[in-house]
## 1
Amino acid sequence: MNTRHLRALAAALLLGGASVAATVMIAPQAAQAATVRAAVGKPLQEAISLANAGKGSEAMAKVHEAEAVGGLTGGEQQAIEQTKEYIGAKTGAGGSATGCKAKFASDYNAGRYRDAIADADCLRKSGGMSGEDELIVAQAYYLSGDYSEAIRELRGLGDSPQVLELMLSAAYKSGDSGSMRDVLEQLVSSGKTQYWGNLLTSAENTKGLQDHQTLDIYRLRFLTNSMRSADDYMLASELALQVGSPQEAANMMQKGMDAKVATGDRATRLFNLAKTQAAKDTAGFDAMQKAADSAKTGDADVKLGEEYWGFARYSDAISTIQNGIKKGVSDSANAQIRLGQAYLGAGQKDAALRAFNAVTKDSGNAQVIAHLWSVYARTSK
């Protein structure tokens, strides 16, 4: 209930009080015309006065006195209910859903957030609590600085952008990195792709990331248009060269240069180095494939498959990595991530998700990377 409704209710009840007062005075002379008898009207008048003084329990005692009068008419019962609502609106006493909600709105709008939180108990007991009210309670916790309680309240309120963005802010202010990442994933999954950068920044703070895993985060930055600076393009390209994916490095630098973000001699040198290495590897693919085929383990196949992926040769990447997995690899989590990326490049999202989901929690940070890629697989078009 908004403040305008609260004021309207108060005005109606005050007008009702005036009507009650007139009835009391004329009752002995015109009992037939009275709608509220003096035995009912007088305690209701007193109840309103007590409510205006902030004495809720005393006001309710007067209402109970009016209720105890025998043979209540429909008009008298209505006056009693209106008085209860007014007392609830003014003091929170009485348990009336309308009254509780009015006081709840009044306290919140006046910045009395702790009082509004207490009012919510009255609303719940009276059965008047709505989903919108629950969100206001969470906001009250947030505005009073109790961010942990705000998060707890918000967790059961669905995944609307309003709920998630408030939870994200509460998690940030309380330093709750786990909740931040959970909320960012939900925001990204709900179509708020502008949050990819925040999610990946959070992932970059994961302790113990290997260079290859850091590259996988930058790959997602590249794919989601979340690169922040020339340094991002340069570092991502250097890491791609380091793992043997020169065409990917060249593609990253090309995009950074086209956007006039990566400029200068260093960017040009890195771009030319990547192009030169990519041309050399292209000429040597047949030899690399034969060497991988003849290897007893599948590590060389997985490495070659990752380079095929960088060249957008997705079918070759899938078959080569699959062959490596069949032979056995030293790092199965890494192989599944590379297979998932290859499937995703080929547009086979379901197969990609199966590969990413095959990386289990006991794989450490590899599971963090696989999970991020599974989120991308679910949300990318």
## 2
Amino acid sequence: MKSNMANAHLTNAKRAKNDEFYTQYDDIQKEIEAYVEYDPDVFKGKVIYCNCDDPFESNFVKFFANRFNGYGIKKLVATSYVGSPIAQTELQFSIPGEIRRKKELPEKKRKKAFKIEINEVSDLTKDGVINLDDVKYLLKHDKNASSLLHGDEKYTAGDFRSKECVELLRRSDIVVTNPPFSLFREYVKQLFDYNKKFVIIGNMNAITYKEIFPLIKNNKLWLGNGFNAGNAYFFTPNTRDFASGVYDEKTGLVKFRNVCWFTNLDHGRRHQPLPLMTMKENLKYSKHKEVKGKRTYDRYDNYDAIEVPFTDSIPSDYCGVMGVPISFLDKYNPDQFEIVKFRHGDDGKDLRLKDGSCPYFRVVIRHKKRGK
């Protein structure tokens, strides 16, 4: 039994190392401010839980600690996996965006997983301003602010599935973090099991998961405000080859284009109408050669719908069902469109055109009826 437990913990530790990506402060600020702009009180009186974050280095923690009083946050909680390469360093709380060499803690302390709970941010340093220096002072001097995590018989200390982390989740209101991509399905399921609001980062491919797309279809989960120009940069302490990211040795950052924010908090961009042309205008003026000059839109062979190869080519005057690229979801306005289904035709197979080709991953939509 002990051997199996040890193997399970080792597997969890390896997975955690491979999922070790740290989000940039500016990206967090841009995303979170979109929710505050839509609802200034969205975080007021709420317990914010960052349950996949190094309590001492996470930019999520830094950001919410900085905005603790401004947003009226009730409590900020953060936990991380044991063995985190970043967590095992001296307290830094450096200026957001600054890259600094870190002094490792003694080996005995490096094996520990920590939790922090911040109930108040005040001018502890007596310098006349309240900032991250006060949070750093708090964590160094208040023994009640940070404590060890222990894990359990099944999960490593700090694992979001461990009993102590689940208990912290139960007592939280909004979860904001960059969870392990390899455990995304399980992570999202837990959030819904405990009926939590959240803002999290995930791989764009997660949209296609059978556990995720129904949530999007039913407007229980949607895409967030988004990264600048669709590019996300993460710091990682584990230099290796990345299947879908580009690593920069000078900055220590990995660039990804296939990640996005997932949330169930509302934001203004979600309600911006998508400007569209009529079908006739698209066929005459579209910038896409696949549309411009054609007599009509292609139809599917195994489903009564038209194929719309580009989001900006959705005809404003078409009343039927349309298959659109999955990238449409980044522009999806639930007040303007209704999601019908995903990908499959009446025969249960991928949507297929008359020529036998199958367009890659189509979301089937229609315009919402006026006055509905």
## 3
Amino acid sequence: MTATEHVILVDYSDLPVGSAEKLAAHRQGLCHRAFSVFVFRQVPELQLLLQQRADGKYHSSGLWTNTCCSHPRQNETIIAAGERRLQEEMGLDLPLKWAGKFHYIAHLENGLIENEIDHVLVSCTKELTEVPFNQDEAMAIKWLSIPELKSQLAENPAGFTPWLAQSLEIAEGFLSKM
């Protein structure tokens, strides 16, 4: 993460109110816009691509989470931002669909605060085996069915990022309407 990265500050209705340097926003707990990407495949059962956040991440390192997540840039749509980060983190070029959004606040292990309006983005593919993920972003990846993931979340919630369960509900609800 460079010192020049900024996030879009928003009110609780997700209306932009300014911008802030990314780390400063997390130190001060400022509400900002974010997104969480979920890539599913059907082989034959539905599976989600998860990543284990790299040790070098500024927060939540080593925790398992959705396929990728980040923050949109100024004048960048949520979909374009999600597709950009999916390519940067996982090496995947897939179209995304908007599934919904939610607000959450999480106090992290290193004193940082996530205060985000998180937009959930979904992609479904029939086949996907090669995932040339960026090891600066993720130390490992795995595919899990939704029931397997929910079981692991229940058994070891501390092993997962604080936004995963809520964002998974939105992704799952979106899938049920497809």
## 4
Amino acid sequence: MILEFIYGALVSIAVGALIGLEREHRREGDTILVGIRSFPLVALSAYIIAFLALDVEGMEILIVAGFLLFGGLALILIFIRQSLGYTGFTTTLALIVTYLVGVMVAYGYFIEAVIVGVATTTILISKERIHAFVKVLDEREIIGALQFITIAFILYPLTLDLQLEPPWTIFGRGEPLDLNMVLLIVVFVSSISFISFLVVRWQGPSRGLRFSGLLGGLVNSEATTASLCGLVRKRPAAINIAACGIVLANSTMFVRNLAICIFADPTFEVASLTILPLILLFGLGVLMGWKRYQDEGDSLELEMGSPFAIRPALTFGLLFFVISGAALFLQDQLGGEFIYFLALGGFVSSAAVVASVSALSLSGSIEPQVAAEIVLLACGISSLNKIIISRVMCPGLSRGALIRLVVTTVATFAAAALLFSLRILP
């Protein structure tokens, strides 16, 4: 009992000290009201209060009383800070979180308490970076992000216990068109896109078009290609760098699709067949795209729309349903050989094709080998689409990227053909 108490006390002190250390780390000249000593004492006090409340039956009210006590101290802290000319409530909120951490330790949630402490410290220490991320978003993009979060954290949980009656059972849990799985994949794909979009907006101008193109492929490789073509029409001097950007955007499309494949089919049956060719194709694209041109175009900013909004998310979800429904129809009504026509969806969204066939493989609707072949075909068609887009929008740019994109496209189709031959040959 004594050792358990000592261990809990030490954990509380350590987590409190971690948060307090960050609060103490101020610029010279600032007045420190609560810091490296105060926060550990708050966590230790909370631990002792909760420990006593748990040890004595009917004394859980002590935890509430302690919360009210430290909440009152937090209010006094706000008043003192404002009287000294300081603004903000971050330190006050951190103090309350520290109290709750001490309570968590007393209840035996040691790992969870450490996670909360580390997460709190990370948020506190990342003030400048968080503000920098916020500044790259305009009001429309923030509203779109809030709408998307509504889907992710309200609509998705509602589908966990969804009970459907015939003929809608096909959208139920574990079915070929599992609505819950669709929403989960939509959240995953859009999250990849949004994080990449933020990094491009934040670091793109300082890193150049090659960097923007490389990450742009994770957002939307077709949209990135179109944006680079539009940029060249305004700034012809950027043609060489833009061509590299298109090749790099196309190369990261392979990595994104591999991640989607693994997420949609956690059994790894489809990914195990596609991981080697997709990684090799990514490496080939990077080698051909990362050429060291030195011109003014490398400092230009790539314009892209935010993918983290209602419309892109719903569009992807709709494509997922259409492709999955078409796969089931082709498989059941026309025969398995027609299912390869699904790869044509790569002209619209290779990610939707990859997600659909991987999820169908997980449900047992199609064979993993066939799904892997369609994945590679969709990637090849997506590469071919970049050639068409650049050729139509900016012929001069297409000549710079044409040979490299053709090499990538041919290599992708060759990988699909090799996988197909390994299946049909004895």
